[in-house]
Inverse folding.
């Protein structure tokens, strides 16, 4: 089922949680709403679910008005960060709950309920835990129960609000891989809210980057990482070397020094040069467009980074660059930086 969000705005007193947001979510896709706290991603998810209503705008499911429907009528499954399982019910009954509370023509016979629950428990690989209670499960197991319960009602839309946020790093990675594989088997449109860049880039078919109640960019994981549309996206996704600069007469300057770098058509005025650390080569200072002094070198397993102070008006600017293993780079060394790939954005 496709989801269309059209010119949606939502305020909480003086705070604009969403500011005229429009978004198309194709049917069957797994879409990640990615952004920092306060960017509006959870508010947008709750409006899609029917847990909140916008002050203005429309939400459509397969072209039909969704705002006139209740949560139940929208047929959405919801998975929260903190599981929200019933502690007095075992795993089987937690998953069966949504089926047992149905009434009228929607109510299934007991044999059909048991068959569906057993099928779901097998699908999420916890059928052997059916008699246990939430307090007897690990965090990863509880989240699988929560997901099975959301899927029990055969939702057309699956909404996941920071589903792995309470788990440790190793379990998060395992569940991300598992959820991606599971999504391939299910005929459902999924919307995932996360502030974890790695999670969004690894899981999603489409990434929606949000900031301050607006959508900054919509694209594939490769597009938002390799071709960020704004400085915000470049800064937020992945690591960035950021260098304040100025554009004068179509040329780039750091302080009074003109850089032999293309200004990429940026208008005259304050600007920022942004590059990924792995896209910046180290060189002799006299042959490089940017030069500075090494302040420190740090190693994190296979990754080495150098803090480099670059002279500028008002004081040095410290940037981070990748250092190849095996290179000797003593503190205090004068070093040049050559960006192989970079972006120039106007600076507010």
């Amino acid at each position: 089922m496709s989801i269309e969000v059209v010119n949606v705005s939502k305020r909480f007193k003086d705070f604009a949680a969403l500011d005229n947001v429009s978004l198309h979510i194709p049917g069957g896709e797994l879409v990640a709403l990615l952004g920092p706290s306060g960017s509006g991603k959870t508010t947008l998810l709750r409006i899609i679910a029917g847990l909140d209503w916008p002050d203005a705008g429309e939400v459509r499911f397969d072209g039909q008005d969704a705002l006139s429907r209740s949560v139940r009528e929208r047929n959405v499954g919801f998975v929260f960060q903190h599981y929200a399982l019933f502690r007095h019910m075992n795993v089987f009954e937690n998953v069966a709950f949504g089926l047992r509370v149905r009434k009228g023509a929607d109510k299934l016979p007991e044999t059909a309920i048991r068959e569906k629950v057993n099928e779901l428990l097998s699908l999420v690989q916890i059928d052997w835990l059916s008699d246990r209670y939430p307090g007897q499960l690990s965090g990863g197991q509880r989240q699988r129960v929560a997901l099975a319960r959301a899927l029990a009602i055969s939702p057309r839309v699956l909404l996941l609000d920071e589903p792995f946020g309470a788990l440790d790093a190793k379990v998060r990675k395992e569940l991300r891989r598992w959820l991606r594989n599971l999504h391939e088997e299910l005929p459902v449109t999924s919307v995932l809210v996360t502030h974890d860049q790695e999670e969004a880039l690894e899981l999603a078919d489409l990434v929606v980057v949000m900031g301050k109640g607006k959508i900054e960019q919509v694209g594939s994981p490769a597009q938002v990482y390799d071709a960020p549309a704004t400085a915000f996206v470049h800064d937020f996704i992945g690591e960035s070397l950021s260098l304040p600069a100025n554009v004068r007469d179509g040329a780039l300057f750091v302080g009074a020094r003109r850089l032999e770098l293309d200004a990429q058509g940026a208008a005259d005025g304050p600007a920022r040069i942004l590059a990924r650390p792995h896209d910046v080569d180290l060189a002799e200072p006299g042959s490089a467009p940017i030069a500075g002094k090494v302040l420190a070198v740090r190693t994190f397993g296979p990754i080495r980074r150098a803090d480099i102070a670059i002279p500028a008006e008002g004081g040095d600017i410290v940037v981070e660059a990748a250092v190849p293993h095996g290179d000797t780079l003593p503190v205090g060394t004068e070093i040049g930086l050559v960006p192989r790939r970079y972006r120039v954005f106007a600076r507010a």
Remarks:
- The two ends are 40 Å apart (CA to CA).
- The chain is about 25% helix and 35% strand.
- The chain has a mean pLDDT of 89.
- Residues 169-185 form the longest helix (17 residues).
